[in-house]
Write a structure and sequence with these properties.
about 260 residues; Rossmann fold; 10 helices; 7 strands; binds S-adenosylmethionine
């Protein structure tokens, strides 16, 4: 798993292992641990110049748990796009219908990892894994669509196509508008170049400036009600671990009908 965004799935899965999240052990890999350690070491050097910035693992942990929190308030079936090696489907498929979509190489890797253990094989009996391009496939009907760690890689046209493509009543995803990101600085730009080497040139898109822009695009795609939730506003109230870390993360929860 390298040469495209699938390598990023190794890092995010390892964040869950590091934090001890339920079912994360089913998806831990030696490669994931290596990517996690090397990335953290490189970011640790970068943070010598910006000690005010929280480490990436806290930001991604908050992202995972914010989406878990929103999901926990809802009932109904889930389709998760670009699910990678996330343990969310494994942790939830006992209680609700759960379908995950990712590119063939990642989907096959996930199946292989789950096949390793009895518990993983039991998950595979309940969790539906679909291999394909989530922006192109006809998405199965569901009450909720989740896309974690995907929208930031899409340019404006692809993002708007995705928003129109999601027909579910509720859509939950993360993206941090540019004006809320700390400026990357010289070291950040160097790291981005490093990331591109491992992802075949893929990196973050930089055309999304404000939350209002996201709202407008979601409204244009037929979502009537859009809530933007920042980690810094809810970390303590939602009892996120490491709430003292001032992570920059915004999760959007959009619904097609107005809530009562
Ligand atoms: C940053 S990882 C996030 C994985 C997972 N959602 C998580 O948070 O742990 C990005 C994922 O997007 C997947 N991906 C990228 N483009 C995709 C597409 N067009 N269709 C489906 N999956 C895609 C990659 O394979 C990778 O697994």
């Amino acid at each position: 798993m390298s040469g495209d965004l699938s390598v990023t799935a190794l890092y995010t899965a390892q964040v869950a292992v590091w934090a001890g999240l339920p079912c994360s052990e089913l998806l831990g890999t030696v490669d994931g641990k290596r990517v996690f350690d090397v990335t953290n070491a490189a970011l640790g050097v970068a943070r010598l110049a910006r000690p005010d910035l929280p480490a990436l693992r806290y930001t991604l942990l908050h992202r995972q748990l914010m989406i878990d929190h929103l999901l926990g308030e809802l009932t109904g079936s889930v389709v998760e796009l670009a699910a990678g090696l996330s343990r969310r489907g494994a942790a939830n498929c006992r209680d609700r219908s759960y379908t995950e979509i990712d590119l063939p190489v990642v989907s096959a890797k996930k199946r292989e990892l789950l096949e390793r253990t009895d518990e993983g094989r039991a998950v595979l009996e309940r969790l539906t894994l679909i291999a394909g391009d989530a922006t192109e496939l006809d998405l199965p009907a569901s009450d909720i669509v989740i896309a974690e760690g995907l929208v930031m890689y899409l340019d404006a046209a692809a993002r708007q196509r995705l928003f129109a493509h999601v027909r579910a009543p509720r859509f939950i995803f993360d993206v941090v508008p540019l004006e809320e990101e700390p400026p990357p600085g010289r070291i950040g730009r160097l790291l981005e170049r490093g990331m591109k080497r491992f992802t075949g040139g893929r990196s973050f898109e930089r055309d999304l400036r404000t939350r209002d822009q996201v709202r407008d695009e979601l409204h244009a795609a037929g979502f009537a009600d859009v809530e933007a939730i920042a980690a810094s506003d809810i970390a303590r109230e939602w009892q996120l671990p490491h709430a003292e870390q001032k992570t920059t993360m915004v999760v959007f929860s959009a619904s097609r009908g107005r809530r009562a």
